[in-house]
Structures are given as C-alpha cells and as structure tokens.
Design goal:
Order of helices and strands: HHEEEHEEEEEEEEE
Distance between the termini: 108 Å
Structural class: alpha+beta
Number of helices: 3
Helix content: 25-40%
Strand order of the largest sheet: 1-2-3-4-5-8-9-12
Strand content: over 45%
Largest sheet: 8 strands, antiparallel, barrel
C-alpha cells in the first residue's frame, strides 16, 4: 500500500513538472509573438511617416511661386534644388517702348526715333541666365538731309517730302544675371537677329527717288534692370551688316531712264526705354 502511494505521488510530481514546463514554454512563445507584432507595427508606422514626408515634399516642391523648371516633370535641362529668390518672373511677356538715337555721322539716315517693343523672357538654369526674344518696331524721325541728298543725287535745298522711316528688328538674346534680389536684378548679354529697313521716297520734277528696303542681319548688346516684379528699364546698342544701300531715280510716267546709286550707310543705333512685365495667359 505504501509502495502504491509512493508511485502515485511520483506520477503527480512528474505531471506537475511537465505542466509547469509547458506553461513556461507557452508564455515565452506568446511574448515572442507579441514582440514581433509590435516591431512590425513600429516599422509600419515609420514607413507611413516616411511616405507622408515624401508626399509633403512633393507638394511643397510643386507649390505656387516655384520656378517653372522645378514643377515641370518633362523639363530635363536643369532642375533646381531650391528657388532662387530674385524678382525675375519664371516666364514673362513684356510690352514697352523707348527712344532711339543714331550713332551720328554723314552715313546715318536718321538721328532720332521712337521704338515700340514686345519681349518674351525665359529664365534658365535656376535664373542664372535669361533667354529673351524681342521685336522692336522703330519709327525714325529727323532725317539726315546730307545723306538723302547724296542718295537721291540732288541738292539739299531741293529735298521735298522726306518723312519718317521705319525699321523692324526680330532678335534673340542670351543674358547673364549679373546680380539679383527681390527688389532689383541686373542682366546683360548679346543679341542677334534680322532687320527690315524701309526708307521714304520723294517726287520731284516728274522724277521718283527711292531707296531699296533691304533685309539684313543685325547684332548688338542689351542690358536690363528689373525693378520690382512688373517693370524693367533697358539700354541697347544695335547695328546691322548693311554697309551700303541702293537708291533709284526713275521717271514717274515711264521707267526708261533709271539711275542706280550705291550709298554707304551706318544703321547703328542706341535705344533706351522701359517695359511692363506681364504673366503670359497661356
């Protein structure tokens, strides 16, 4: 009987030990699973925060007022890392005018003029450069009577009805932004393009006197001073490859006695003016 009781007690002790071991193992397993779930949740939270930050950065980069190049995904020339804080618009249209002064001398057809111009400006490389496309329509006054007398082959006192002339320049220029701030910016650079010149004719004693209207290559230098966000002043020197022009003298009724002359000419001018800066509607 005593032996049987010992066996029963031994079996109970073994069952108790195995139960304790099993409970400890189960608890350890549960702790590991809880810890793994917590780590996964922390990683997911971190990833969500990172994704949220990336989206915020994208929204910030595409915020209004940034450079055109920074918000255009198809622009591959240059993508700035930050917005350069100067007062040159991203892309602008300019409308303005000014006055023109000829270089002077005996070969200049006119001494003064009035210019109307339109410009299209495109900043490049985070506004360190500026591409400017310009059209200058120029009305020239105060004719040089010495030059026209030589061109028409008449005396200066015989000149009648020599009025205003007209030139039109279409040019493209590349400016360097020399200095810039939110109030003032200064740019300068070369420009080149094409020029059309149209000079007046004269009728005298049954004869017609006129000068050909050549199309030539023009070139020069220009500087802009931007004041605020919607205004800039400019100074420009322009010249032409045309160094001589052809004048004709013919009878008004018949054209049998036409006379041709080659006259030296200097088309160099200096322009100064002001431009209103506008945002393009397109």
């Amino acid at each position: 009987m005593i032996k049987c009781m010992k066996n029963i007690i031994s079996l109970l002790l073994l069952a108790f030990v195995f139960t304790g071991i099993n409970n400890v193992a189960a608890k350890t397993k549960n702790n590991r699973e809880i810890k793994g779930v917590s780590s996964t949740n922390v990683k997911n939270v971190k990833n969500e925060k990172k994704d949220t930050k990336v989206e915020a950065d994208k929204i910030k980069k595409n915020a209004p007022g940034e450079d055109t190049t920074s918000k255009d995904p198809d622009f591959h020339f240059y993508t700035p890392k930050y917005k350069r804080g100067i007062n040159i618009q991203d892309v602008y249209v300019g409308i303005g005018g000014g006055c023109t002064v000829g270089k002077g001398g005996v070969n200049a057809p006119y001494n003064t003029g009035v210019a109307l111009n339109t410009t299209y400006g495109i900043p490049l490389y985070n506004k360190y450069f500026l591409l400017e496309i310009s059209n200058n329509a120029e009305f020239m006054f105060a004719p040089n009577k010495d030059w026209f007398a030589k061109a028409f082959g008449v005396q200066k006192s015989d000149l009648r009805g020599v009025g205003a002339g007209f030139t039109d320049e279409l040019t493209m220029g590349l400016h360097v932004v020399i200095a810039g701030s939110r109030k003032l910016s200064l740019t300068a650079g070369p420009m080149a393009g094409g020029k059309l010149t149209n000079l007046p004719s004269m009728k005298l004693d049954g004869m017609m006197y006129y000068v050909s209207a050549p199309i030539s290559f023009c070139y020069g230098l220009k500087t802009n001073l931007y004041i605020g966000d919607h205004f800039y002043c400019y100074a420009q020197y322009s010249n032409s490859t045309t160094t001589n022009m052809v004048s004709y003298t013919s009878q008004i009724v018949t054209d049998y006695s036409q006379t041709v002359r080659h006259i030296p000419v200097d088309m160099g001018t200096i322009r100064v003016g002001a431009v209103l800066v506008l945002e393009p509607w397109w």
